[in-house]
């Protein structure tokens, strides 16, 4: 009887169609904020027809989580009564997890089949396979196994296949990828590796490859074990890697590299020289020349080492930078070498050389906006204004940082080219009631943003491409601004400027910006770049909320303890974020370029990047920012600020200022007379 009830519960559910039809017939309208909704974040979701069932869901979910396992089956009737509620599959999932046993094999298998690839199934197969492996249910494990389940379960699967009589030659071919891993593999892989070794598949080449991988992943501990797997004649390769990973400067020791096994030794040489180049480029260059004269390196390896030495000298502003950039900027080299070659020449005012480099670059590079802009700038500086103007005019028709800069050079307004995506009301109404959309909405109402975004991502990846823009419009109308932004980005519909740059939390930004004398457009541009207006965003390093504030930063500007929950509160987050912008403005002489760079990389680092002897034009300084992320960040924020000025109905245009301003030299840095802290402000 229990099995029949379970199968009935696991059957694909079509009862949602009734609710879908109801929603199709209803217009979109405002709604009460979701339960425990982040304060100040107002959503405009569709009419709430699930309020009662949502409460029932929460009550039942709590029972399934907390009641004893033997009582779980008593709730089958209650579970089925919610079969037309969007989150019904999550109750099924919870029941299966609580009652998991070999007797529920058919139920688990059916669930994994019915909801394959959907967020509700994430992680369940992994739990099920671990359960089966722990109890040695081999056939059930093999029936349920799917590739990509991690090293432990993969090794168990291969061992089971061998034990069940599958030809060893066929199974052991799949061990290579498990072996070629930089970290120690789970204990479950040891018997498999032993059989693989016995079959003669652990060749010296395979062992050396793993040593290389482990060394590059900074796992020196495994190398002595791997060394013992090598014949005596090859064990010195392991010693090379142990030496250079302990101290990369040891690459200078000729005795380490007898060039007996050139292919393996040069892997260590290339890795070491690239690392050393970022610390001591002159030393790396000397060692590199010694081995290059012996023909040790391939052309691809030369590109790698030349790049590291050239860029290190460039970032040091060394006199040797020019020579090494010329040497590194060769056919087949990484594109960023040409970029840095141009940036270096711009900083040193060699505009004729910039023209030469760009005009001799591959056509694909010449077509890129940044190279067209710098060609125009260099032509202008080289007294070729007519050619420069033609390029500026072409660029000024494009909506990006370089297009906006070009427009300022020819005294025209930047082109936003706002072309709103056409709204297909019927298509959007149907999209609003797909199961994934309904589940996402329910999770948003429950303030479970992570689960909601998983469902929305699933939606975007399982609808036709021509409907992704519709999803963006739908998310925008519901106030799910980060989802709208990601949907338009995924669809490639870039011209809907109003929806891609929403006036999210405009009242909050306007109030806080006015209070601290910060441009509203600047604050919104920072938030758009930082979080896409996702109030619960958290970065890998712990920055939180709309303006991605570190807890320590918030505490500093607030001059009081700030809880983590406050950083997710829109009002508090914007308050602290705008206060921090004011702090940076005061420290950096109200320079928005330096402030935006500091918001990303830290003001101390930005002061280190100031020109040494003389001021630099803003655009050339930005192009020479050492951090790729910060370069892109500053360009984006300046661009977004102009877009938000237009969105807010202002005619202000920051780009003429950017084309005329200079970034001051380090000589302008002073010490505050009271705090003793460095600042870029009048002494």
UniProtKB/TrEMBL annotation:
Keyword Signal: yes
Any one annotated GO CC term: periplasmic space
A molecular-function term among this protein's GO annotations: hydrolase activity, hydrolyzing O-glycosyl compounds
Keywords on record: Signal
Domain Transglycosylase SLT: 508-610
Signal peptide: 1-33
Annotated ranges, domain Lytic transglycosylase superhelical linker: 432-497
Entries under PANTHER family matching the protein: SOLUBLE LYTIC MUREIN TRANSGLYCOSYLASE, SOLUBLE LYTIC MUREIN TRANSGLYCOSYLASE-RELATED
UniProt family annotation: Belongs to the transglycosylase Slt family.
Name of the protein in its database record: Transglycosylase SLT domain-containing protein
């Amino acid at each position: 009887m229990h099995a029949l009830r379970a199968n009935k519960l696991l059957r694909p559910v079509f009862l949602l169609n009734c609710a879908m039809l109801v929603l199709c017939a209803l217009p979109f309208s405002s709604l009460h904020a979701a339960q425990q909704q982040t304060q100040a974040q107002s959503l405009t979701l569709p009419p709430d027809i699930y309020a009662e069932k949502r409460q029932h869901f929460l009550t039942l979910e709590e029972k399934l989580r907390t009641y004893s396992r033997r009582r779980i089956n008593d709730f089958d009737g209650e579970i089925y009564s919610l079969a037309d509620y969007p989150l019904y599959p999550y109750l099924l999932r919870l029941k299966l997890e609580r009652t998991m046993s070999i007797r529920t094999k058919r139920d688990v298998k059916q669930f994994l089949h019915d909801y394959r690839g959907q967020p509700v199934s994430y992680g369940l197969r992994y739990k099920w396979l671990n359960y089966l492996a722990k109890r040695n249910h081999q056939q059930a494990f093999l029936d349920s196994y799917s590739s990509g389940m991690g090293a432990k379960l993969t090794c168990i699967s291969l061992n089971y296949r061998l034990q069940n009589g599958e030809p060893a030659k066929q199974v052991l071919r799949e061990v290579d990828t498990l072996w070629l891993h930089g970290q120690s593999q789970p204990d479950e892989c040891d018997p498999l590796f032993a059989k693989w070794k016995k079959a003669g598949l652990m060749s010296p080449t395979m062992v050396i490859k793993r040593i290389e991988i482990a060394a590059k992943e900074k796992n020196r501990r495994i190398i002595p074990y791997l060394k013992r797997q090598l014949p005596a004649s090859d064990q010195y390769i392991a010693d090379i890697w142990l030496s250079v990973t302990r101290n990369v400067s040891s690459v200078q020791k000729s005795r380490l590299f007898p060039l007996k096994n050139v292919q393996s030794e040069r892997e260590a040489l290339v890795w070491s020289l690239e690392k050393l180049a970022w610390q001591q480029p002159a030393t790396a260059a000397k060692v590199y020349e010694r081995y290059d004269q012996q023909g040790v390196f391939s052309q691809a390896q030369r590109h790698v080492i030349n790049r590291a030495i050239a860029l290190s000298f460039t970032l040091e502003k060394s006199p040797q930078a020019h020579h090494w950039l010329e040497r590194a900027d060769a056919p087949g080299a990484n594109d960023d070498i040409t970029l840095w070659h141009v940036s270096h020449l711009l900083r040193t005012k060699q505009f004729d050389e910039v023209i030469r480099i760009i005009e001799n670059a591959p056509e694909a590079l010449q077509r890129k906006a940044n190279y067209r802009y710098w060609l125009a700038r260099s032509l202008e500086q080289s007294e070729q204004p007519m050619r420069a103007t033609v390029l500026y005019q072409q660029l000024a028709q494009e909506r990006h940082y370089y297009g906006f800069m070009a427009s300022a050079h020819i005294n025209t307004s930047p082109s936003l080219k706002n072309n709103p995506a056409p709204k297909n009301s019927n298509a959007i109404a149907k999209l609003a009631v797909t199961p994934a959309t309904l589940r996402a909405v329910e999770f948003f109402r429950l303030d479970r943003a992570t689960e909601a975004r998983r469902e929305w991502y699933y939606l975007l990846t399982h609808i036709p491409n021509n409907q992704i823009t519709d999803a963006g419009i739908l998310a925008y109308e519901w106030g799910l601004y980060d989802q709208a932004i990601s949907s338009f980005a995924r669809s490639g519909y870039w011209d809907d400027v109003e929806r891609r740059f929403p006036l999210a939390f405009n009242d909050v930004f306007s109030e806080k910006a006015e209070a601290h004398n910060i441009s509203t457009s600047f604050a919104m541009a920072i938030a758009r770049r930082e979080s896409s207006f996702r109030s619960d965003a958290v970065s890998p390093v712990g920055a939180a909320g709309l303006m991605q504030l570190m807890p320590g930063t918030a505490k500093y500007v607030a001059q009081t303890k700030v809880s983590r929950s406050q950083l997710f509160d829109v009002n508090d987050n914007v308050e602290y974020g705008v206060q921090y912008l004011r702090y940076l403005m005061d420290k950096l002489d109200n320079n928005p370029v330096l402030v935006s760079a500091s918001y990303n990389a830290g003001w101390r680092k930005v002061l280190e990047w100031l020109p040494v002897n003389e001021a630099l034009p803003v655009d050339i300084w930005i192009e020479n920012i050492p951090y790729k992320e910060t370069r892109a960040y500053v360009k984006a924020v300046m661009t977004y600020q102009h877009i938000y000025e237009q969105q807010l109905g202002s005619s202000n245009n920051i780009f003429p200022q950017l084309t005329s301003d200079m970034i001051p030299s380090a000589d302008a840095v002073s010490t505050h007379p009271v705090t003793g802290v460095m600042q870029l402000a009048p002494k």
